[in-house]
Amino acid sequence: MKKLIALALATTAITGTAFAQDTAITEFRIGILGGENAQDRMNSNECLRSSIEEALGVPTKIFAPADYNGVIQGLLGGSIDLSLMGPSSYAAVHIADESAVSPILVKVNSDGSTGYYSIGFARIDSGVTSLEGLKGKVFGFGDPNSTSGYLIPSIEIPQITGASMDNGDYFGEVKFTGGHEQTIVAVNNGDVAAGVTWADGQGNWEDGYNFGALRKAVDAGLVDMNDLVEIWRSKLIPGEPVVLRNALPDDVRATVTQIIDTMGENDPACAEAIAGGEVSGFDPITHDAYTSIVAARLAESN
């Protein structure tokens, strides 16, 4: 991968915005989006936490709020410095305060591409094989700030069904489960007829694909993919960005960027742990990759 460590130092030039920077830090805070067990989230990111702490020489802490909004508000309020976010969550931060954070890196799939999909799925014994089989049934979303667990399917599914996502308009009921893991469990247990989650769409279905929430659920022993069936797939979604708070000192931004940017080569096991499955590493990214997601969130809120 081409290394552009200076990207963290060039944020002002790229965005045309001047950011007031902290002169020093006494700790560094990593925010982890919701969607799976909090302890599992913290365990998966411990390798990143320890690497950053060693490099910066200050205590580095992981925060795992119950929902996506906890990380969004932490970045906006300055209590979280770094997060690997879904594009919709990043868009929420950007819409609230364009100067708060910048995307610096994006996960790279094992084939060198970036991006992922929202995957609609149901239990195979339900007989549901498409969205058409869900009319009048209960459908599960994850979190309102999730890209694949809400924003994209709420736009694309009505284009297929010709109806809104409101209760009773096409689906009998639409439920928010609280996150991707919760949606997977709810479908697997029959609490909802179908739901949406995220995956790279590469590799084998029985493995939960190469990375994503399905792969995490398989690896954790929560589901057997042979009990589930894919019933819908979105268009390709821009890859999940790693975002850094702009007010951090330049040297901190450069150090943290370098750690993650080179993780695919230096610590591939850690790269896969924080990415949620098989990836080749991380590559530089800028806000331009997410303008369509920002526009979608703005349109959805109107």
Automatic annotation (TrEMBL):
GO cellular component assignments: ATP-binding cassette (ABC) transporter complex
Any one Gene Ontology BP term: organic phosphonate transport
Organism: Sulfitobacter guttiformis
Assigned keywords, A-Z: Signal
This protein's name: Phosphonate transport system substrate-binding protein
Signal peptide: 1-20
PANTHER family: PHOSPHONATES-BINDING PERIPLASMIC PROTEIN (PTHR35841:SF1)
Family label: Belongs to the phosphate/phosphite/phosphonate binding protein family.
Record NCBIfam families: 3A0109s03R, PhnD
InterPro entries, per database record: PhnD, Phosphnate-bd
UniProt-listed SUPFAM superfamilies: Periplasmic binding protein-like II
Transmembrane segments: none
Highest taxon listed in the record's lineage: Bacteria
Coiled-coil ranges (or none): none
